[in-house]
Amino acid sequence: MGLSSRPLSLCFVIFCNLFLISHSLEFAFNGFNTSGVTMGGSTDIEASGALRLTPKTPNLIGHAFHRDPIPMFNSSPNASSFSTCFVFQILPDLASRGGFGFAFTLSPSPGFPGAEGGHYLGVFNSTNDGSSANHIFLVEFDTVNGYNEELDKDGNHVGINIDGMTPVASDSATYSVNGTRAKEEIDLESGDPVQAWIEYDGFGKLLNVTIAPIDSPKPIIPLLSESIDLSKVVKDSMYAGFSAATGQKYSSHYILGWSFKLNGIADPLNIDRLPFVPNVKSSSTSNVKLKNALIATFSVIIFLLLLALGGIFVYRRVLEFEHLEDWELECPRRFRYKDLYKATKGFKESEIIGIGGFGAVYRGVLEAHGTEVAVKKIMSNNALQGLREFAAEIESLGRLRHKNLVNLQGWCKHKKDLLLVYDYVPNGSLDSLLYTNSENGKIILNWEQRFSIIKGIASGLLYLHEEWERVVIHRDVKSPNVLIDAYMNARLGDFGLARLYDHGKNSHTTNVVGTIGYIAPELTRTGKASTSTDVFAFGILLLEVACGRRPVVCEAARNVILVDWVVECMQVGNIYDAVDPRLGSNYVSEEMEMVLGLGLLCSHPRAETRPTMRQVMRYLNGDEVLPVFDHLSASGSRRVDEITSRFLSLGLSESIITPVYNSSSSVGRVSTGSFHSGR
Hints:
The chain is an alpha+beta fold. Helix content is 27%, strand content 24%.
C-alpha cells in the first residue's frame, strides 16, 4: 500500500507545479517602448524610454497598463499571489508645489471611464468613489492631502485602497534603515527616483508595501503590512497598471522601470539600464525661491529692528520711572492698573468706603484670588504735592509691620492716578462706630471693646515712635484714621502726612498739618511736629473714646472743645458726667477714671508735661499708676474731689474756653467753618 501511494503523490506534486507554471505571468521593463503597454489620457513615452503619465500641466489624467490581462484565480478560492517592483520619479512645479500623485492599480479593464483628476488620481469620480462594484485595488503615492476636506495641504504618504480613495492603511513615505526600526523620510516630490515593491501572498492574505531611494537596497521591514483578502475584490481577469492626475497643482509623473510576476518574486530591475530624466529646476522657479528667501530675510531684519526699538523704548521708560520713584525700593510690589480697575468695578461710587483729605478709599476684590482689598486713590490739586504724599505713605508704610497698623500690600502709578492698596478692614473706622446708633445697624462699642481699642492704638504708636528702626511721626492721629478689623482690633492707618527721622535726632518738619481738634498748641506756634504732638492727638482720641464726643462740637450756638468740656465736668464736681451716656454704668470705674485722666494728661497744653507712648502703655497695662491717681481714697465723692483737685493743679484750667455765642466767630482759634473743612 505504501509503495503504491508514492508514485501517486509524486504525480500530484508534478501536476500542481505544471498547473502553477501554466498560470504564471511575468514581465520586466527596464525602460519602455510602445510594445507591451496600453496608454491613455496624457501618457506618453519619451525618447529616453521613460513612461510619463502626466506633464507639468494642470487638470490632466494619464493611464498605462500591461496589455495582457492577469488571471487572478488558479482553480482556488484564494486570489493569486503576485509581486511587482517599479521605479518612479515625480518632478513638481516648485512654484506651486506639485500634485497630485499616482497609483499602482489592479482593475477589471485597462481604463477608468469617467474618472476625475485631483485627489481621485484619475481612477474614481465623486459618484463611484467607495463603491464595491468597482473591483479596483490600488496603492497610492499621494503628494497632496485634503481629500474630502475644504483645503488642500502638503501630503507625502503611501496608502492601500480598495474601491475608493479612503485608504484601509496608510503611512508617511519612509523606509527602515539597515533592518532596524529607525526610519528616514522620502520626499516623493524631491525629483529623485524612488523604488517601490508591492507583494501579495494569496494563501496568507497579506500585502506588503516597501519603498526606498534608488541607490538603497530593499529594506527588510516593509512600510505597510496589511491583512487583505483580495479574493473578495478582484475578478478572474485583471489588468495591472498605473494612473496619475494633476489639478490646480501639477507635476510630471514618470515610471522608469517595471517588473511583475504572478505566483512568484518579480525580477529585480537593472538600475543601470533605466532611462534618465534630468531633475532640472527652471530659472523662474529659482528666481521665485530667491525672491522668497530675500523677502523672508528682510522680514526678519525688520522684525528684529522693531523689537530692538520697542525694547529701547520700554527700557528708557523703566529707567525714567525708576529714577523718579526711588521709594519703589521700599515697597516693591506694584499692582497693574487694570487689575485694580476691575477689582473696584471701575472705581464705582458704590464701592467707596471712605473719603479723606487726600482722596477716596474703595473696596475691591482682586480677581486672581478673590482677596478683599482697600484701594486708596490719592487726589491733590497740586500734582507734585500729591506725588509727595503718595511717596511719603509708601516710604512710611512700605516696611512697617505691626498688628495694630494697617498693612500696605502695594501700589500703582498710572498716568495721573496714584493708588495705594491696603488690607481690607471690614468694620470701618473708629469714627463711624463711635458716632452712630443701633438704629443704623451699626455696632455700639461696649467699654471692654473701647479699652482694647485704646491699648491697640497706643501699641501701634509706641512701635512708630520707639520700636521701629527710625522714628515715625504720624502727624494725623484721629478716630477716622483708626480702622477696626473683624476681631475688633484697632489698626492705625493713613500715613500720608507721616515723617521719618533717625533715633536720637530732632524732627526738622516745620509746616503745620493735621486735623482741627487734634493739633497740639505748640504746633501752631512753631510748626514743629514731634512724637509729643502725636501724644497730644492720642490724648484727644482717648477722651473721644471715653466720652463719645467729637474733639470740637457746635452746641447751643457755640463751639465746645472736648478737653475743656471734660475739665468743666471736673470743676462742677463730677467727672463721670463726661462719660458716653450710651455706656450707661457698664464700665469699670477705675479704668474710666484712668482713661479720662490719661487723656487730659496726654493733651496737656505744655508738651513737657505729656508722657511718652512707652509710659502710656505702662499706665494702660497697669504696670504703673498714673501720678494723678497715686494714694487716692478708696472710693466715693472724696476720691472724685481729690482727682479733680490734682488735675486742676496741673494747670488744666488754663485751657478752659470762655463760651462765645456766635457760631461764625473763632473760639480758641477754632471755628465751626474750619472744623467742617476737614484737614
